[in-house]
TrEMBL record:
Single GO molecular function: diphosphomevalonate decarboxylase activity
Start and end residues of each Mvd1 C-terminal domain: 201-374
Gene Ontology CC: one annotated term: cytosol
Cross-referenced NCBIfam families: mevDPdecarb (TIGR01240)
Keywords: ATP-binding, Lipid biosynthesis, Lipid metabolism, Lyase, Nucleotide-binding, Steroid biosynthesis, Steroid metabolism, Sterol biosynthesis, Sterol metabolism
Record-given protein name: Diphosphomevalonate decarboxylase
Transmembrane annotation, as ranges: none
EC top class, as a word: lyase
Source organism (scientific name): Paraglomus occultum
InterPro entries in alphabetical order: GHMP_kinase_C_sf, Mev_decarb, Mev_diP_decarb, MVD-like_N, Mvd1_C, Ribosomal_Su5_D2-typ_SF, Ribsml_uS5_D2-typ_fold_subgr
EC number assigned by the record: 4.1.1.33
Chain ranges of the Diphosphomevalonate decarboxylase-like N-terminal domain: 11-187
Pathway: Isoprenoid biosynthesis; isopentenyl diphosphate biosynthesis via mevalonate pathway; isopentenyl diphosphate from (R)-mevalonate: step 3/3
Amino acid sequence: MPDYYEKTCTAPVNIAVIKYWGKRDVSLNLPTNSSLSVTLSQDNLQSKTTIRADPSFSKTRLWLNGVEEDVSASKRIQTCIKEARRLRSLYEQQLLRDGNSEVVPLSEYNLHICSENNFPTAAGLASSASGFACFVYTLAQLYSLPNSLSELSIIARQGSGSACRSLFGGFVAWEMGVNNDGSDSMAVQIADEHHWPELIALICVVSDAKKAIGSTVGMQVTVKTSSLLKERIECVVPKRMEEMVKAIKDKDFDAFAELTMRDSNQFHAVCLDSFPPIFYLNDISRAIIRLVEEYNSTSCNYKAAYTFDAGPNAVIYTLRENADELVGLIKRYFMGEEREQIPSGFRADAVPIFEEGSVKQLIRTTVGDGPRVIEDGL
Ligand code: PMV
């Protein structure tokens, strides 16, 4: 028998096109509305976690990007460990009942957890989503849990709401559920990563600073004070979820783009409707919206769709055939690159030109797969 047990996995980032904003239960991370996201390729954005269980470890320890963190200070990490241990312990009992005499009591061992992102943490790039998804998935692999990905998503959800969606590749819905215990608030896959290969995401990193107001606090203010949120969760999102699922299944970019932009706008509108108001967009974000609008006005169909999370960074979805053109425009207006070519019909002066470095980094990526088990550990 080995002295220790170890697994290493990776998990992707997801970017919502129907936003989660509002908790009906803060400790269980139960949302006030369902949401839907696109999982992005792990080639560019990925969390990686190694977990080792060893009977000789005197306590459970955690390193994030090489720096040790206090596990006992994070209730959310504790909850994920507790839940995964509970499932492992049930599994151990079942193995024993089935007559398996060599069951390793992994549920009782302390853990050493190392986790890294290959992109800036907390920069509005959903690092908590990929981080918690990776953590829960790795623990489930270490424990050989027989549970489905949707069942595991219930655990990841308790780490960070949006993390539940990073357990799947492709297009993923987080169904809000109706139960008070959260047992039906989980992620389900709408379509896999091969479904719509023409879809491209352009991530415009406007700021890599940590966001001013974290999502948990922001959501609490919105739930308490915004009357617009009530309209959003009761009247808007349920219908929008259905329309978005259809748009994705039909690969209907026109419908997908309009729903995506409208939903991002409404999320930021409920932030502004909170009291005190919450602002995540800045002048550069708003100019990116302007650029996408002007670009869309050059055609009778939508060619691009912007979306923003709790920060100023933009994610622009487009189709492969338009991606080079759009990259050229972003470089011209926000990255200080002089380009001769602008698309016909695009009014050059309709968008303000910002100084070089306004968009610090432009990441071009595609729809990607879900968590993976890998060999080389941290
Ligand atoms: O999972 P959290 O608590 O980081 O909240 C994420 C909220 C948004 O990114 C703004 C929207 C979403 O659905 O991902």
